[in-house]
Amino acid sequence: MLVYYVFFFSFFLILFPFLCHMYSLSNKYTSYISYTCGSDRPKLTETYTEDTWLKLRDAVGAIQNSTSIKYNLEELYQAVENLCSYKVSPMLYKQLRQVCEDHVQAQIHQFREYPSLLSFLKRMNRCWQDHCRQTIMIRSIFLFLDRTYVLQNSLLPSIWDTGLELFRTHIVSDSMVQSRAVEGILEQIERERNGETVDRSLLRSLLGMLSDLQVYKESFEQRFLVETERLYAAEGQRLMLERDVPEYLHHVARRLDEENDRIISYLDQSTQKPLISTVEKQLLGEHMTAILQKGLCTLLDENRVTELTLLYQLFSKVKGGLPVLLQFWRDYIKNFGGEIVGSPEKDKDMVQELLDFKDKMDNVAHRCFQRNETFINAMKEAFESFINKRPNKPAELIAKYVDSKLRAGNKEATEEELERILDKIMIIFRFIHGKDVFEAFYKKDLAKRLLVGKSASVDAEKSMLSKLKHECGAAFTSKLEGMFKDMELSKDIMIQFKQYMQNQSEPSNIELTVNILTMGYWPTYTPMEVHLPAEMVKLQEVFKMFYLGKHSGRKLQWQPTLGHAVLKAEFKEGKKELQVSLFQTLVLLMFNEGEEFTLEEIQTATGIEDGELRRTLQSLACGKARVLNKNPRGKDVEDGDRFNFNNDFKHKLFRIKINQIQMKETVEEQVSTTERVFQDRQYQIDAAVVRIMKMRKTLSHNLLVSELYNQLKFPVKPGDLKKRIESLIDRDYMERDKESPNQYHYVA
User: Could you tell me which of 505, 503, 501 has the C-alpha nearest to residue 493?
Assistant: First the structure.
């Protein structure tokens, strides 16, 4: 017998910690029973079996009725073990189940008389908690039965599972009980959603009960999701009418946070995905278009970064949300940018507005839309779309904007800021299709800056040139680079010319500076014959002889429209220096020979073209620095007007710059520059057609047009291509197929 006791004691020491662990894991009531070695096992008789069972039944009844147990728990445990050892486990299991079932069945009556749903829920929770505590206690007494007979029979549920099954079958599965319980839980959740405080521990316990009993989904979750959908569908429609978009977005975010908190607090984790999906669908999915139509433009106009970030985060959670947001974002950029580009009255500020708009959209894409590549690419496509809706003008204005930043006198920015501005301009420049238009105007403005010496910084000029070269290739900037080379070579030539003049026997009173320009690099200037003073003509001949002596075979063509001079003048107030154009110089020098001249006399003497002369006289007699008097007075120069020298002229500066009218771009110059671009484009189209046909020999019209679109770097209409093809056919570069008019053959 000593061996038996040692074996039994060892078995229990191993089993009991495991038992306690199992109870603690279930978060139920745990009863700790202290056992010692039992006495000799009694002999099995029918009387002993019946007495033992009655003793056990009384103990179970006491537990179920929450009264004190008459017997020692160790004794009860030993009694169960004895019965199991004598092979009466089936009978013991069956009788225990019947006692428990009778008790559970009797509990159903207490749920018939609770008018208040909250009271009903509390009673249900107490019943459930009592049942769990009782089942754990009963299981601890019948543990030997549970761990031997039940464990060996896989078809039999454990004592704990039997308790759950009985409670589910006789209490929770009752239609009235289940209906009231679910209604009560739903009512409490709705109260909480409406802002009231509810007992979350009660809800957590009851929903845990449904989950443990494996009826959570069928009895609660389905109805809960239906009620959630109904609630938020109505709320979404109501609030979309009552609230503005920022307020609505914050409300949606708050609702989602609340529902996530409910999942953490008392709902089953399996409910998270369908619940959040339902809320997102009803508050966002059903109103995506309405939200964007009602509020996106306002959010973007007002740069509401916080709300735009929230909008992106919310829409990213809804199926199809980001594609809809992307389309509205793209349309907004096209519409807003189209208004900037398409309004001629805004031309003066167009480029600055485009830069500001691009900065703003970049900020939104990076800070609010999480640098989403799809949104960034859509923004680029939208910019490229609207900026080319008005052909050529944006390219022209961007060139002028660069000119304003690179021109001397621009004190708005330091070198670092100027570099950042140029980088931003290049971003806008990339969107332009007609880059040749930009090149034409940029080259014309660059020529003015270089020839008049009004470039703010050579480093900035070369930096811009480097950016253009990187963006468009060396061919694009070859002529611009040639202009800089001409200016540097001209400086070297003038050093040599000054040394040459020092060796002349008859030094001149005029200090001449000449810039030698290679005709192919610089803009085309219309030659204008004017009557220069004899001393100027003589000095020109001296320079011509000097230059051609070093570079034979070259031809010099003087461009008076680009000339400027510094004149010394005497007024009553004293001596002044006047910084003027060559045309202004010719007019002022006339007043060394006489007191007063008419418009017609001045034109005859100088040979200046009529329109240019009127602008020149207007600058001298009608501007801020009026060194001439006009009679009669007026802002415009008319036929018959007379001019005389203003001896009473006064100015606080010693050197006075009189605005050079001819250096300002006129409408005619703009048209002329644009026409030259179109002419160059025709040459490029012709060259591309001939190049393609020479390589392919025979080609259909559609394939030829497709090849041209691939090769040409500027926008062109199909009609224009057709005209160039017809022109080449007329000039015998190619011919139509006699049988198929849409087929072309190259003519060698």
Answer: 501
